[in-house]
Amino acid sequence: MVFHKLTSLHLVSLRFLNEGLARLLFLGCPLLENLVLERCVYDNIKVLDIYATKLKTLTIENLELDDAGSDGLRQTVLKIFAPNLVSFSYIGPVARDYILQDPVCIVNVYIHLVKGFEKGSLKGLGYLMCKLIGGFYNVQVMKLSIIFLELLFYILSEPVCFPAPFCNLKHLKIYAGADKRHLQVIVHLLKNSPNLKALHVDFVTSGWIHWKGKWQPEDEAVACLAYHLQTVEISNFEGHDNGLEFIKFLLKNGLVLEKVTVIWSMKPEKPIEIIIKALTIMTFPRASQTVEIIFLEPKPLDCFD
């Protein structure tokens, strides 16, 4: 089965019968550049081996599975050899393991994990997330979901967490809660992104997340805040104390900040409370004398755009 001229392939709800056939499928597309695996079933596959030397974009999406017995890649190792891969998107349950060989060209990363790891070790899954993200050392644009932050928190104090900085990262978008754990992970990401220019934090409201603890920033240097971070967007903002403290931290340390945009949550608020919170933000000390603070009305909800 060979498709010599095929450059784009989008598979929807395909059941992979065994590892050999899956590998032959990708090997049989020598010019494949774009691959999307959407709601596919991998029940009988221990290793999903994607070998595609010309591949540039890869999207694996298992959010809404058609097969009730399928659980995405939870029981499957995702192994990728695509030395020309530029963009990688993974949307769905945590895979059993991730093996990315020679990911030097990847500059765009999008990771949206869904819950489904109750039986696993949270610390072990944290190590797995660190292993996955650590391979994207040349990434320029990165989007991360709230569950990714949850898992990474459990190994935040470990030396293995981000062994190398993301020196090329310019734009970081994070879906997070107002939980102090999430804010600790965000600051850790900022410390390891010395050349970051744009930060977007979308505060997510979720029924299974329980906000815990008051966040207080530590007094330590964050290189991107001192030299490169120019724009910050805080969306879905409800005015919670931790969120206010985070904005205060950015304004206090952002020496080259040009614009901070705060977009209010869709959740109904009393107008007077919104005004008070906006005035509170306007009183925060600013390291940048030219930073502009903008307040906007809520945007329609757009889950992990």
From TrEMBL:
Pfam families under this entry?
A: FBD
Q: Which residues form the FBD domain?
A: 223-296
List residues traversing the bilayer.
none
Top-rank lineage group of the source organism:
Eukaryota
Could you tell me the keywords of this UniProt record? Signal
Q: Where is the signal peptide?
A: 1-22
Q: Which InterPro entries match?
A: FBD (IPR006566), FBL13/AtMIF1-like (IPR050232)
Question: Which regions form coiled coils?
Answer: none
- Cite the PANTHER family for this sequence: F-BOX/RNI SUPERFAMILY PROTEIN-RELATED, SUPERFAMILY PROTEIN, PUTATIVE-RELATED
The protein's name: FBD domain-containing protein
Species of origin reads Jatropha curcas (Barbados nut)
Organism phylogeny: Eukaryota, Viridiplantae, Streptophyta, Embryophyta, Tracheophyta
